[in-house]
Amino acid sequence: MLKMDDRSTEIESSSNLSEEQNDITDIPSGSRSREGKSRRNLIGFWLLGLCNNFGYVVMLSAAHDILHEEKNSDQGNQTSNNASLTLDISGSFNSTDGLECNPLSTGTVLLADILPTLIIKITAPFYMQRIPYSIRMAICVLFAFASFFIVAFSQALWFSLLGVVFASISSGFGEITLLSYSAHFDKDVVSTWSSGTGGAGVFGALSYAGFTSAGVTPRNTVLIMNVIPFTLGVSYWFILEHPKGVTEREPLLETERTEGAEKLPVDPLTIKVKLIITKSLLKFMLPLFFVYFAEYFINQGLHELIYWNRIWLTPSEQYRWYQVDYQIGVFISRSSVNIFPIKKIWILAVLQNVNLVILLCEAYFHFLPSVWIMFLIVLYEGLLGGACYVNAFYRISQEVPPKHREFSMGVTSMADSCGIALAGATALPTHNALCTYWRNKIRS
């Protein structure tokens, strides 16, 4: 009897051990499945960040060329106020070397590139949850295609600016959509999204500068960029592993999430609750506002007025490569949050505004001895801006409760757009004042 009991116990133990071994062997398979899905989502969000911001960056890189082309078309009729002003860096003037002023600042293009985005971001958190994600992304892709075609075939400044507006609508709609959508995925997609947006800056500015430097016309360069909206659509519909039902149902009422991500509780947000949440987000929004105001005032108000004559780059080429240099800094810092997180992001806002003061003085006095020093300052400017952006959104993904995270991501993205819009509005009179100053100096 004892032997039979022992035998039974042995069989049972063997059976249990076999089941445990099966469980153990099953774990890596499931783990691999989750890892593959997670990897696809990380890659997908990186590509979405890249493609979503690409058109916006290209339009800003092309801003000087868009305005310069319009100025050239009018130059036969205007010979005084709109003629190129020239300032040798040493302070002497002549007709071939010096400061060249477009009749309009590149801040004009910046305003066309940011105001639609700003309007979308201010209003979208309060109504966009009613629009399915798939429809939102279709809108983004269509507007992106339209923007490149319009700018490529435009024969008038106002039509070119309409193309810039379309790029802005695509980028703004895409950013608030995808940042909100990231709340349904693992937290790491926020860092890959941010890295992708930084990559958009580098590849967008570099591709535009590279093609035009190689002899491709600005119009044909913009036309080539139509590969980007196509990639945007492929990334969203074919690379991402979408949470079941989220793309078709109201996001804030959706409770399902992908494997490995937290479930979002059902908790529809009232207007009052949204305003309370927005107030709690000011610690992220204010630094973003001031950082972006300073850097875009520099980029679109001062860069075109700071250049060196008689070097290997023309003034237009210097402007393009400033954009590339800045975007390299943004890309590096936006890709570094997992290695070097920063909690006190307000410090970045202070440092960026110090940059603004230095470069405003440079635009007025021209005291920097070399273009290489300017390139270093611009790189540093990009590092500060990118670090503020990625650390703000990364902290939201870590600190804000899951039920409020989707709304928080969307509404915080409004802060940088407000700063950019104010920078564009301020850049216009500043550009005109500096041009008037040098014009009067020439005449005196």
Automatic annotation (TrEMBL):
Residues 1-36 are annotated as: Disordered. Keywords: Lysosome, Membrane, Transmembrane, Transmembrane helix, Transport. GO terms for biological process: regulation of intracellular pH. The keyword Heme does not apply. It is found in: Endomembrane system; Lysosome membrane. CDD domains: MFS. GO terms for cellular component: endomembrane system; lysosomal membrane. Gene3D superfamilies: MFS general substrate transporter like domains. This is Battenin. It is a multi-pass membrane protein.
